[in-house]
Design goal:
181 residues, alpha+beta, Beta-lactamase Inhibitory Protein, Chain:B, domain 1, four-stranded antiparallel β-sheet, 29% helix, extended
Amino acid sequence: MTATPTFCFFTRSLAIGLVVLGVAGCSGFSGGVTRDTFKPYVPEVVQGNFISKEQRQVLRPGMARVQVREILGTPLVASLFHADRWDYAFSIQRQGVAPQNFRLTVHFKGDLLDRIEGDELPSESEFASRLIRPRPTGKLPTLQASEEELKKFTVSPAPQSSNLPAATLPRAYPPLEPAPR
Protein backbone atom coordinates (compact mmCIF):
# COMPACT_ATOMS: atom_id res chain seq x y z
CA MET A 1 0.00 0.00 0.00
CA THR A 2 2.83 2.41 0.64
CA ALA A 3 4.31 1.83 -2.83
CA THR A 4 1.29 3.24 -4.63
CA PRO A 5 1.48 6.84 -3.26
CA THR A 6 5.22 6.89 -3.97
CA PHE A 7 4.60 5.71 -7.55
CA CYS A 8 1.89 8.38 -8.08
CA PHE A 9 4.20 11.08 -6.72
CA PHE A 10 6.98 9.89 -9.05
CA THR A 11 4.76 9.89 -12.17
CA ARG A 12 3.34 13.32 -11.32
CA SER A 13 6.83 14.72 -10.81
CA LEU A 14 7.99 13.18 -14.08
CA ALA A 15 5.00 14.62 -15.98
CA ILE A 16 5.52 18.09 -14.51
CA GLY A 17 9.24 17.91 -15.30
CA LEU A 18 8.53 16.98 -18.94
CA VAL A 19 6.05 19.85 -19.31
CA VAL A 20 8.56 22.32 -17.84
CA LEU A 21 11.30 21.04 -20.16
CA GLY A 22 8.97 21.28 -23.17
CA VAL A 23 8.02 24.86 -22.38
CA ALA A 24 11.67 25.78 -21.77
CA GLY A 25 12.61 24.23 -25.12
CA CYS A 26 9.98 26.30 -26.92
CA SER A 27 11.35 29.51 -25.43
CA GLY A 28 14.52 29.05 -27.50
CA PHE A 29 12.50 29.04 -30.72
CA SER A 30 13.22 32.56 -31.97
CA GLY A 31 11.07 32.53 -35.10
CA GLY A 32 7.77 32.21 -33.35
CA VAL A 33 4.72 30.58 -34.87
CA THR A 34 3.03 32.90 -37.33
CA ARG A 35 0.35 32.51 -39.93
CA ASP A 36 3.03 31.85 -42.56
CA THR A 37 4.80 29.12 -40.58
CA PHE A 38 2.65 26.28 -41.86
CA LYS A 39 1.53 26.87 -45.46
CA PRO A 40 -0.13 24.27 -47.62
CA TYR A 41 1.51 23.48 -50.94
CA VAL A 42 -0.13 25.35 -53.80
CA PRO A 43 0.75 23.97 -57.24
CA GLU A 44 1.80 26.30 -60.02
CA VAL A 45 -1.07 26.83 -62.45
CA VAL A 46 -0.25 27.96 -66.00
CA GLN A 47 -2.99 28.40 -68.59
CA GLY A 48 -2.80 29.61 -72.15
CA ASN A 49 0.07 30.89 -74.31
CA PHE A 50 2.47 33.55 -73.08
CA ILE A 51 2.82 36.28 -75.70
CA SER A 52 5.65 38.74 -75.23
CA LYS A 53 5.93 42.37 -76.25
CA GLU A 54 8.45 41.33 -78.91
CA GLN A 55 5.96 38.94 -80.53
CA ARG A 56 3.25 41.61 -80.48
CA GLN A 57 5.56 44.12 -82.19
CA VAL A 58 6.16 41.77 -85.11
CA LEU A 59 2.45 41.69 -86.04
CA ARG A 60 1.38 44.06 -88.84
CA PRO A 61 -2.05 44.65 -90.40
CA GLY A 62 -2.36 42.72 -93.65
CA MET A 63 -0.51 39.59 -92.43
CA ALA A 64 -2.03 36.23 -93.32
CA ARG A 65 -3.59 33.96 -90.66
CA VAL A 66 -0.82 31.44 -91.19
CA GLN A 67 1.83 34.05 -90.41
CA VAL A 68 -0.02 35.17 -87.26
CA ARG A 69 -0.31 31.55 -86.11
CA GLU A 70 3.44 31.03 -86.66
CA ILE A 71 4.27 34.07 -84.54
CA LEU A 72 1.71 33.73 -81.72
CA GLY A 73 0.95 30.02 -81.77
CA THR A 74 -2.45 28.38 -81.65
CA PRO A 75 -5.14 30.66 -80.19
CA LEU A 76 -6.74 29.67 -76.91
CA VAL A 77 -10.20 30.52 -78.27
CA ALA A 78 -11.17 30.34 -81.94
CA SER A 79 -14.96 30.28 -82.07
CA LEU A 80 -17.09 29.13 -84.99
CA PHE A 81 -19.44 32.01 -84.27
CA HIS A 82 -16.58 34.54 -84.43
CA ALA A 83 -14.46 33.11 -87.21
CA ASP A 84 -12.67 36.42 -87.75
CA ARG A 85 -11.45 36.66 -84.14
CA TRP A 86 -8.74 34.79 -82.24
CA ASP A 87 -8.32 35.19 -78.50
CA TYR A 88 -5.08 34.54 -76.71
CA ALA A 89 -5.15 34.44 -72.92
CA PHE A 90 -2.43 33.65 -70.43
CA SER A 91 -2.51 33.31 -66.66
CA ILE A 92 -0.01 32.03 -64.15
CA GLN A 93 -0.35 31.60 -60.41
CA ARG A 94 2.69 30.73 -58.33
CA GLN A 95 2.99 30.52 -54.60
CA GLY A 96 4.67 33.64 -53.23
CA VAL A 97 4.29 35.64 -56.48
CA ALA A 98 1.40 37.86 -57.54
CA PRO A 99 -0.84 36.22 -60.18
CA GLN A 100 -0.34 37.44 -63.74
CA ASN A 101 -3.02 37.61 -66.42
CA PHE A 102 -2.63 38.83 -70.00
CA ARG A 103 -4.97 38.77 -72.97
CA LEU A 104 -4.66 39.61 -76.64
CA THR A 105 -7.38 39.58 -79.31
CA VAL A 106 -6.57 39.43 -83.01
CA HIS A 107 -9.25 40.42 -85.55
CA PHE A 108 -9.18 39.40 -89.22
CA LYS A 109 -10.97 40.56 -92.35
CA GLY A 110 -11.17 37.55 -94.54
CA ASP A 111 -7.74 35.91 -94.31
CA LEU A 112 -5.77 39.07 -93.42
CA LEU A 113 -4.99 40.65 -90.04
CA ASP A 114 -7.14 43.73 -89.45
CA ARG A 115 -6.51 44.94 -85.87
CA ILE A 116 -5.10 43.88 -82.50
CA GLU A 117 -6.57 44.57 -79.06
CA GLY A 118 -5.33 43.60 -75.64
CA ASP A 119 -3.37 44.30 -72.52
CA GLU A 120 0.06 45.86 -72.26
CA LEU A 121 2.35 42.87 -72.60
CA PRO A 122 5.70 42.47 -70.80
CA SER A 123 8.90 41.63 -72.63
CA GLU A 124 10.36 38.17 -72.08
CA SER A 125 12.96 39.45 -69.61
CA GLU A 126 10.36 41.46 -67.67
CA PHE A 127 8.10 38.43 -67.45
CA ALA A 128 10.95 36.22 -66.23
CA SER A 129 11.88 38.74 -63.55
CA ARG A 130 8.26 38.82 -62.33
CA LEU A 131 8.32 35.08 -61.71
CA ILE A 132 11.18 35.21 -59.23
CA ARG A 133 10.11 35.12 -55.62
CA PRO A 134 11.65 37.83 -53.49
CA ARG A 135 13.98 36.21 -50.99
CA PRO A 136 14.50 37.85 -47.65
CA THR A 137 18.10 38.58 -46.90
CA GLY A 138 19.36 38.51 -43.38
CA LYS A 139 21.96 40.76 -41.89
CA LEU A 140 25.13 40.49 -43.94
CA PRO A 141 28.45 40.37 -42.13
CA THR A 142 30.97 43.14 -42.67
CA LEU A 143 33.75 42.12 -45.02
CA GLN A 144 36.50 44.28 -43.57
CA ALA A 145 39.40 43.19 -41.44
CA SER A 146 42.11 45.19 -39.73
CA GLU A 147 45.80 44.47 -40.24
CA GLU A 148 45.97 42.75 -36.84
CA GLU A 149 43.07 40.44 -37.74
CA LEU A 150 44.71 39.59 -41.07
CA LYS A 151 48.00 38.73 -39.38
CA LYS A 152 46.21 36.00 -37.40
CA PHE A 153 45.56 34.17 -40.66
CA THR A 154 48.93 34.48 -42.35
CA VAL A 155 50.14 31.08 -43.38
CA SER A 156 53.79 30.20 -43.29
CA PRO A 157 55.03 28.24 -46.30
CA ALA A 158 54.92 24.47 -45.86
CA PRO A 159 58.33 22.94 -45.29
CA GLN A 160 59.70 20.91 -48.18
CA SER A 161 60.05 17.39 -46.92
CA SER A 162 62.34 15.35 -49.07
CA ASN A 163 62.25 12.38 -46.75
CA LEU A 164 59.31 10.75 -48.60
CA PRO A 165 60.27 7.42 -50.09
CA ALA A 166 60.11 7.35 -53.86
CA ALA A 167 58.30 4.01 -53.74
CA THR A 168 55.06 5.63 -52.51
CA LEU A 169 54.52 7.48 -55.80
CA PRO A 170 53.45 5.35 -58.78
CA ARG A 171 55.80 5.37 -61.73
CA ALA A 172 53.06 4.63 -64.29
CA TYR A 173 49.30 4.66 -64.23
CA PRO A 174 47.04 1.92 -65.62
CA PRO A 175 45.50 2.57 -69.05
CA LEU A 176 42.08 4.23 -69.09
CA GLU A 177 40.72 1.96 -71.81
CA PRO A 178 41.18 -1.79 -72.16
CA ALA A 179 43.68 -3.04 -74.69
CA PRO A 180 42.21 -4.07 -78.07
CA ARG A 181 41.88 -7.82 -78.67
